[in-house]
Design brief:
The structure holds 2 protein chains of 2 kinds. Chain A is mostly helical. Chain A has 36 helices and 10 strands. In chain A, α14 packs antiparallel against α24 and α33 runs parallel beside α35. The radius of gyration of chain A is 35 Å and the shape is globular. Chain B has one domain: Alkaline Phosphatase, subunit A. In chain B, the strands form 6 sheets. In chain B, strands 1, 5, 6, 7, 8, 9, 13, 14 and 17 form a 9-stranded mixed sheet that branches. A two-stranded antiparallel sheet of chain B has the order 2-11. Chain B has a two-stranded antiparallel ribbon with strand order 3-4. In chain B, α8 runs antiparallel to α9 and α11 runs parallel beside α12. The relative contact order of chain B is 0.21. Classes of the chains: A mainly alpha, B alpha/beta. At the A-B interface, α1, α31, α34, α35 and α36 of A face α1, α8 and α9 of B.
Chain lengths: 878, 477
């Protein structure tokens, strides 16, 4: 077998090259740069594992430190600065003797190492003489931009100060100006109100709202509009949807088998809507979501008001998929996955870090060790205790107080009393039948037969059994008496059942919340799992912050003996630490998300990865300033919205210009607004709005989804027929099928047609960033789906009754869809379309021998409405 | 004609001709996609699905990838190891990288299935693959595949997109971007998903990444309706729907004129036209009832074990015949991920897949289509020579050495390329990694592999992405 000495494209080599790129380096680095920026990333990927990170360094040589290389190992010094040909390390890697195994350094990587040696093997003078075994973070890694403290940068100067409206403008404009660009002109008012309405409410403005805004000549008309929208309760729904993506909200547990429903989780969703509408500070919301339970007094009974809300908020930590009740899944693995997924959600939502990567080994790109990962895990483990696992049904806290409990017990007792009477009367019937049946048996067996019948089933002798087999009818009982005496039974049941039903109605309905809590005193040790395998626990790890952050913001101070907190208090301490105002990631990550939802792209385009593999911010000073202001101003989301949407930048036109496209085709500098396609939920909600069907009530249990006969998913109560065929029946929904998409059940295994087609997220476990796809499945949906056509029909009906003129109906339909009237010339053409379409429908029906629809003009108008709903003008926001 | 007249009025800004499809006229009438000149374009390029010639005369014009997600065991199917038989259940001393260390066993595990030389070429294949055995003179076995990233997601990304990082375009998107499609009535790139769920990474398996969304795969469902909403409503069939589409076209053209350079808007306009034509074309293409009984039997449609997969393979052939550029026929989510109970699970999966896969090669050949159609069979990994879980024997992940096979489109038949080590753990001879495979495929489609690029804001992007990539000439006929 031929031995290959140089393998092409090994994974590790690619990783190292990638790492180099991420750190802003060409593969062949500039000669005057120090170790951290040049050779180290390569050696880290290829050599550190044996030479420093794991146990005793091979050959006594620790390659993590230049000082250690100079000192050398068993074979003498490894490095001779400025002379690569004299350096042992060069000799070994150049000849591919090292690293052992198939993964060798690429020619580019070798060149980088050689260049670094020849430039004098420079290194940071603060480098220590030695390091304990384990991953060591370089200064460059520790100084990664997102770990540095948030600074309140002053706004840069600009040449057009008149264009400055809010904090964000000078930061954006100065960068535009330095690229020879400027802001685009302001969009027209119809565009602005549509943009604002969708951004803040997820709904289109009504034609009346548009007209009023266009006509409003007060100087602060725009600001007034912003305030009006922020005060609208639909605001909370829209922005809750964004957070629910990140939190991974679903109304079911997931899993390969049954994907059971999670019946009480919507209370978390409703809590969130209320909190957003009230503009509660996100510092408080973070604390409540991570540790609301630790702010309460045990036991958790008689809860109401703020206390109840704090408990509901902990539902955040109960949102990930959970297959621990699924017999098809290994229990240890399943529990561990729930903990792992929960940490992943915490990492991506608050920290913007892919900490899950450190579950099995040190993070390959970011300075997160495996110990760090388990430090974080230890914060949550007392509540997510895999040894004392709580199944989904055991995570519910009843909302009953003592009064409800007593009332329920009283009702139960009353029902039992009535039932006793009912059974007694049935027993009388039984006795009559029994005597009749005994009388029908030969006299000789009557005695033994009665004895056999009255003997308990498990005590009967073979003789008893034989007798009963011969005379089975003596086995009459209150359970089967209806077979012997239907009329008598019916009379008794008819007398008592309504009574019992009546009494049962007075029983209070028990309601629950899904929570995350700890059992006081029950504190499992957290152990590091060798290679992430829960079946191979190693050393115990104490709770704490990631070490790279602890260096910056201090350790999490956990007051285990706080008498006010009977549980470990770990999560509460951690939540306070995250919201102390000093944490470098939390505010940046939150602010970036809000920015992303307004401008279509984050200042950091990778909202859940602020690490080395993520992209750096396009405007780092602006991101910091927004984060600093956000914390200074009470972590208020609405204030942040104001800063953004009242800016000149946000009010720009979206039209591309050749000049901008030439230098900034992707609009990274925001010299215009970017157009965006509506999200799946917005499309459906907008259709329901313009067609007048939307049921605007807030909150409550989700609208169910189920399978249709053809195997697609639809809204409705699922019914199963005798053949096992399932159908979703919407008739029992009483109009709930017209509620906002936020309230539609998110069943992980049953993505709803329209939402799935338009890129609603798959929650495994959460969604950091939605995709936007365009494809023929969407077009087929828009052309042929029954829901779209029903919406178009509703819009056609809303446009006016049949005795109104066609032109007025067309104008009305258009105005409802787009908020403004069509031009007169367009209207003429639309009329021609409907007239022609009417004829075409008539001819098509005749050609196929079908009876033409009674009102072809109505149907023609519906197709016109369908075109409006499916048009790009409708589906995109400028 | 009033309709014409009205259309003209709408179109003042777009200024295109009015016949047929406005969208296509706009989109397709202009110079297409292949941005391999490296020159920065001043005008925004316009993307299309019109057929485009390859820079060099191609060997292959279409491809069907039978995508075996989960990782079929090369050791039990393609790569016999006498050394394993000799040392069955003996402990292996060397290092083995595993995914599940918890159930790891050091014991070597010989294949429980027999291998025998097959075909004229004498290719040794497992008894689990009687179907493939019958066409092995037409396939090239690559026994030295490797990606070296030991989990499903990253290895899938490597094999489909060239890199382990997410967000990049897959091979099928590259080919449709570069070559368009011969059929303007069917999606250029079709993905036939399995009733057992979509592969790991879901839609990333057919994602256009940063290529225009026009080039993403279109999913064809595993059960009826295979394409949801394919049927127009009865009362709108024919002229009324055409008129509705024309109106939509007009509205969208006016909107596009006010939004110059927005690719997504143009893509959506084109997707309506495609959707309209698909209503008839796709229905016909997906309907296998007209296939003669002999063909249905060939694909295993008379056998409950292979009927479902066979139907999709047959559909794949019908799509290719009708000009579709790239078809991916998926197996179920992790269907080949035999961590346990391999002795019962692996034969079941083979019964499902073997006959239909082989039928595709034979059927394409008898139709004269194999010369220009590549059939590719493989997953993101193979399995380990040692036992995972002694209580319920399976094999753990192995991305250091595994097997794929390819046929047609310029690949040589009846050959075995590359080799793994004595126990089948690592590819050691004539290694073919994902970039080598990509380079070879692109070469057969007529491209210089590194030169097929797409202009991104950050510079040209490509499938190979600057990685060393060798055209495996030994595989070529």
């Amino acid at each position: 077998m031929r031995k290959r000495t140089l393998r092409r494209g090994s994974a590790a080599a690619r990783l190292a090259a990638l790492l180099a790129v991420c750190m802003g380096l060409p593969a062949r680095a500039a000669e005057n740069q120090a170790f951290d920026e040049t050779a180290r990333p390569i050696l880290k990927a290829m050599c550190f594992h044996c030479h420093g990170e794991e146990g005793k360094p091979e050959g006594g040589l620790d390659l993590r430190l230049v000082r250690a290389m100079l000192k050398g190992g068993d074979s003498g010094p490894a490095l001779e600065p400025s002379m690569h040909q004299e350096s042992l390390i060069w000799e070994r890697i150049e000849s591919d003797e090292m690293p052992p195994g198939p993964k060798k350094l690429t020619p580019d990587q070798k060149a980088t190492v050689r260049a670094w040696i020849d430039a004098g093997a420079r290194f940071d003078s603060s480098e220590p003489d030695s390091l304990p075994p384990g991953p060591a973070f370089s200064t460059a890694e520790r100084n990664h931009w997102s770990f540095r403290p948030i600074q309140r940068f002053e706004a840069p100067g600009v040449t057009q100060p008149a264009a400055i409206r809010t904090t964000i403008d000078p930061f954006l404009l100065s960068k535009l100006e330095s690229n020879g660009l400027s802001f685009s002109p302001e969009a027209d008012r119809t565009t602005l109100i549509r943009r604002l309405s969708f951004d803040l409410l997820g709904l289109p403005p009504s034609p009346q709202d548009v007209a009023a805004f266009v006509a409003d000549d007060r100087p602060d008309a725009y600001e007034r509009l912003v305030e009006r929208l922020l005060a609208n309760p639909h605001y909370g729904e829209r922005w809750a949807r964004h957070w629910l993506d990140v939190a991974g909200y679903a109304d079911s547990d997931g899993g390969p088998s049954t994907d059971p429903e999670r019946p009480y989780v919507h209370r978390y969703r409703d809590w969130l809507i209320q909190a957003l509408n009230a503009d509660r500070g996100w510092d408080a919301l973070i604390r409540e979501q991570l540790a609301g339970d630790e702010m309460l007094t045990q036991p958790l009974t008689e809860l109401a008001g703020d206390d109840l809300n704090r408990l509901i908020a902990t539902g955040f930590l109960r949102l990930v998929p959970d297959t621990t009740t699924d017999s098809a899944v290994d229990a240890v693995v399943a529990r561990n996955e729930v903990v792992g997924d929960t940490l992943k959600v915490v990492g991506s939502s608050f920290l913007g870090l892919t900490i899950g990567c450190a579950q099995c080994h040190a993070h390959r790109y970011d300075p997160v060790s495996q110990e760090d990962y388990y430090r974080l895990r230890a914060i949550f483990e007392p509540a997510l205790d895999t040894e004392h696992w709580r199944l989904p049904k055991d995570r519910l806290v009843s909302l009953w107080g003592e009064a409800e409990r007593q009332k329920a017990a009283a009702v139960d007792a009353e029902v039992a009393a009535i039932d006793k009477e009912r059974v007694a009367e049935l027993e009388k019937l039984v006795q009559i039948v029994l005597e009749r049946e005994l009388a029908a048996a030969p006299e000789a067996v009557r005695g033994p037969l009665r004895e056999a019948r009255d003997t308990a089933a498990d005590k009967r002798t073979d003789k008893h059994k034989a007798l009963l087999k011969e005379y089975p009818r003596v086995l009459v009982s209150t359970g089967n008496i209806s077979l012997f005496d239907a009329q008598g039974t019916n009379t008794v049941e008819g007398k008592y059942n309504p009574k019992m039903a009546e009494v049962r109605k007075t029983r209070p309905v028990e309601d629950f919340v899904q929570v995350l809590t700890e059992v006081p005193g029950q504190v499992p040790p957290t152990r590091l799992f060798y290679r992430g395998d829960p079946k191979q626990p190693k050393q115990e790890i104490q709770p704490g912050e990631l070490s790279v952050l602890a260096e910056r913001v201090g350790a999490v101070s956990i007051a285990g003996d706080d008498p006010g907190v009977p549980t470990t208090g770990r999560r509460l301490a951690y939540a306070r630490h995250l919201t102390s105002g000093k944490h470098p990631l939390v505010a940046r990550v939150l602010v970036n998300r809000v920015w992303m939802h307004h401008f279509g792209r984050g200042l950091v385009p990778t909202p859940a990865d602020f690490g080395a593999l993520g992209q750096p911010p396009s405007h780092p000073q602006l991101l910091d300033r927004l984060a600093a202001d956000f914390m200074d101003q009470g972590w208020s989301l609405k204030n942040l919205h104001r800063t953004i949407v009242r800016s000149t930048a946000y009010r720009q036109r979206s039209t591309r210009t050749q000049e901008q496209d030439a230098s900034d085709p992707d609009n990274l500098l925001l010299g215009r607004m970017s157009i965006r396609r509506l999200e799946a939920e917005e499309i459906r909600d907008a259709w329901l709005t313009v067609s007048g069907q939307l049921r605007p009530q807030l909150y409550g249990a989700p609208v169910p989804v189920g399978f249709t006969l053809d195997g697609t998913i639809a809204l409705g109560i699922e019914k199963v027929d005798g053949n096992g065929h399932r159908t979703a029946d919407a008739t029992g929904l009483n109009g709930a099928q017209f509620r906002r998409s936020l309230y539609l059940q998110v069943r992980r295994s049953r993505p709803l047609g329209l939402l799935e087609v338009f890129d609603a997220p798959t929650l495994t476990p959460n969604c950091d960033l939605r995709g936007v796809s365009t494809g023929s499945t969407q077009s087929l949906y828009l052309l042929n789906d029954a829901d779209v056509r029903a919406t178009a029909a509703a819009l056609a009906r809303r446009s006016g009754s049949a005795h109104e003129s066609l032109s007025s109906r067309l104008e009305h339909a258009w105005t409802l869809a787009f908020g403004k009237a069509p031009e007169a010339s367009q209207l003429e053409l639309f009329q021609a379309y409907v007239t022609g379409q009417s004829e075409a429908l008539f001819r098509a029906a005749a050609a196929e021998g079908r009876k033409p629809a009674l009102a072809t003009e109505q149907l023609a108008l519906e197709t016109f409405c369908q075109a409006l709903l499916a048009s790009n003008s409708f589906l995109y926001v400028d | 004609m009033t309709e014409h007249h009205s259309r003209r009025h709408f179109l003042t800004a777009a200024g295109t001709n009015l016949t047929g499809s406005l969208a296509l006229a706009y989109l397709l009438g202009q110079e297409g996609a292949r941005a391999d000149t490296g020159k920065p374009t001043l005008e925004k390029p316009v993307y299309s699905l019109l057929p485009k010639p390859a820079p060099r005369p191609p060997r292959a014009q279409a491809m069907i990838s039978l995508w075996m997600q989960g990782g079929p065991s090369h050791l039990d199917l393609f790569d016999p190891k006498p050394e394993l038989t000799k040392n069955h259940l003996k402990s292996h001393g060397g290092d083995i990288e595993r995914d599940n260390a918890g159930e790891a066993s050091p014991k070597l595990f010989a294949s429980p299935w027999k291998f025998e030389p097959r075909g004229h070429c004498g290719m040794p294949l497992s008894e689990l693959l009687p179907g493939l055995a019958a066409v092995c003179d037409d396939i090239a076995l690559i026994r030295s595949m490797k990606t070296d990233v030991n989990n499903h997601g990253q290895s899938i990304s490597a094999l489909l997109t060239g890199r382990i990082t997410p967000g990049r375009p897959v091979l099928g998107s590259w080919l449709t971007y570069a070559l368009g499609t011969e059929s303007q009535n069917l999606p250029a790139y079709c993905v036939l998903t399995d009733p057992g769920g979509v592969p790991v990474l879901g839609a990333d398996n057919w994602s256009n990444g940063w290529l225009p969304s026009l080039y993403q795969g279109t999913v064809i469902r595993p059960r009826e309706p295979r394409i949801v909403n394919l049927e127009p409503p009865a009362e709108l069939r024919g002229a009324p729907q055409r008129r509705l589409l024309n109106l939509l076209d007009d509205l969208n053209a006016t909107h596009l004129a006010a939004h110059p350079g927005e690719h997504d808007l143009s893509s959506r306009i084109a997707s309506y036209e495609l959707a309209a034509r698909m209503q008839t074309a796709a229905k016909e293409a997906l309907d296998i009832s007209s296939e003669p009984p002999a063909i249905q039997t060939l694909y295993g449609l008379d056998n409950p074990a292979s009927r479902e997969y066979g139907t999709r393979c047959l559909i794949a052939r019908r799509l290719i015949e009708r000009g579709v550029r790239f078809v991916q026929v998926c197996t179920g989510n992790q269907e080949w991920d035999h961590h346990g109970a391999i002795e019962t699970a692996l034969p079941n999966t083979c019964k499902k897949v073997d006959q239909p896969s082989a039928a595709l090669v034979r059927d394409l050949k008898q139709r004269g289509l194999l010369d220009t159609t590549i059939v590719h069979w493989g997953g993101e990994m193979g399995r380990l020579p040692v036992i995972q879980n002694e209580k319920n024997i399976g094999r753990d992940h192995n991305t250091h050495g595994f097997t794929h096979w390819v046929a047609g489109g310029g690949f040589k038949g009846g050959i075995i390329h590359g080799a793994t080590d004595e126990i089948g753990y690592k590819a050691v001879e004539n290694i073919v990694n994902h970039s080598d495979l990509h380079a070879t495929l692109l070469h057969l489609f007529g491209f210089e592999p590194q030169a097929l690029t797409f202009q991104r804001p950050t510079g040209p992007g490509s499938l190979i992405d600057g990685q060393p990539a060798r055209i495996v000439t030994e595989l070529l006929a």
